[in-house]
Design a protein that fits this description.
about 80 residues, alpha/beta, three-stranded parallel β-sheet
Length: about 80
């Protein structure tokens, strides 16, 4: 990713009312860590965000500080 593209993405995020971080069903440590890191960046820039996941999170999510997750309805309900 180029510096210009990174700055362009950040500029878009700064104008968002809410950034949505979607975790895949049964998230593993890699996805939890990535989501937590992205959330930390959003917090540093005071950009509001919300986590969504199609399944319950594993207990390891607490290690990453991910606790404000909303469950998404199955795709058949929203698609």
């Amino acid at each position: 990713m180029t510096e210009f593209l990174a700055q362009e993405i950040l500029a878009k995020l700064k104008t968002a009312r809410l950034a949505v971080l979607v975790l895949h069903r049964g998230p593993d440590a890699d996805s939890l860590g990535s989501a937590a890191a992205f959330a930390a960046m959003l917090e540093a820039y005071k950009i509001p965000y919300r986590f969504y996941c199609a399944s319950e999170l594993p207990a390891s999510a607490q290690f990453f500080g991910i606790d404000n997750v909303s469950l998404m309805p199955p795709c058949e309900v929203i698609c």
